[in-house]
Amino acid sequence: MKTKTGTNIDEVISLLNCAKIVAIPTETVYGLAANGLNEEAIQKIFKAKKRPLSNPLILHFKDVMDLTKYVKNLPEPAEILANRFWPGPLTLLLEKSELIPDVVNSGKSRIAVRIPSHEMTLTLLKKLNFPIAAPSANLYGRISPTKAEHVIHQLDGIIPYVLNGGKCENGIESTIVGFEDNLPVIYRLGAITLEEIESCLNVKVKIHNHNIKSEGPDSSGMVKFHYAPRTPIYDIDEMDTNEDSEHVGYIGFDKLNRSIPVENQFLLSDEADLKIASKNLYHSLHYMDQKNFKKIYICKFPLMGLGLSMNDRITKAIAKFRT
Ligand code: TXA
Ligand code: MG
Questions:
Q1: Which CATH superfamily is domain 4-207 in?
Q2: Which of left, alpha, beta for 234 (phi over 0: left; psi -120 to 50: alpha)?
Q3: Residue bearing the CA closest to ligand 1, atom 10
Q4: Which one in 126, 202, 265, 270 has a CA-CA gap of 20 to 30 Å to 211?
C-alpha cells in the first residue's frame, strides 16, 4: 500500500467512510483514526499498531452534545472539567452506552472520551456522522508521533493516508481522568497538569495506583514500559564518568552536559520552559533514535506541572532497558 501525506479532509472522509484507517493530527500527538462505531475498522487499528485487543481506545467527538449520546451520565466534576478544558487535551473515563461496540474499549464498562482542539480534526469531526476512535499513531510500545514524518517513519505502507496538520502544539498525550465516588482520579498524566485539574475542581486529586487492577489488564499508558526509542535510553545520572561519550546522545532540558560532545546533544528549551520542552520531547526522541548512537541519556524534569507528565513518559521509556 502506498501511504499519501496531505491536507485533503474530503479524502480522509471517503477513507473513513469505507472502514479504512488514517492518521490525523491532534493538539497532543497524531492519532490513528477509524470510524468509532465500525468494528471492522477498529480491528484494523489494533492490527496496524500491533496493539493487544485488551487495550482500550479513546473516542473523539466534535462537541459535548454529540458525546452525551454515547455515555450514561456526566458526573458533576466531569462536567466542570469538560467546560474548562474542552476542546483540548483532556480525556474523561465515563460509563459507556450500548451504542459503542465492545471492541473499542475492550469490553470495559467505561469509555475514554475527548474533544480535541486541533482545527483540522475538529473540521473533520464536524463532517462525520460518527465519533473517531484513535490511539496514538505509533507502533505499540514505541514513541508517539508529533509530526506527520514521525507517523510515516513507523507506519509507511501500512495506512493509506496521513492528514498533515503540522507539529502538534502540546506534544504529549492528553491527561486521563476517571471518577471514583464522584472524586477525580488521574489515570495518565499528560498535557493538562495535575495542578490545573486540582485548581479547577478545588480538590486534591489522586493519581491512580497502577498496581491495582480493577478491570482486567492495565492500559498501555499504565504499563511499566512504553514510549521507547529503539536505542537504549538511560537517566543521565547513571552515566559513568569514565564512559567514552563519543557515541552517546543526550537530551537535556536547558543546559548542555559537559561530558558529552555538543553535536550529540538536543536541548528541549533554552529558556527552561516546560511547555516548550514538552512540545519537543517526542520529537527529540525520534530524532536521536535515528542518529545510531550506542545509548541515549536523558535528563529528569522538575517535579511539578508538565515536568511530572514528562518524567512519567521518560521513566517508562527507560524501564524497557532495565529488564
Ligand atoms: O492525546 C491523546 O490522548 C492521544 C490522541 C490521539 O487523542 N491518544 C492516545 O491514545 O494517547 P492511546 O490509545 O495511545 O492512549 C490511551 C490510553 C491507553 O493507555 C489506554 O489503555 C487508556 O488510555 N484507556 C482507554 N480507555 C480506557 C479505559 N476505559 N480505562 C482505562 N484506561 C483506558
Ligand atoms: Mg499511545
A1: DHBP synthase (3.90.870.10)
A2: beta
A3: 135
A4: 202
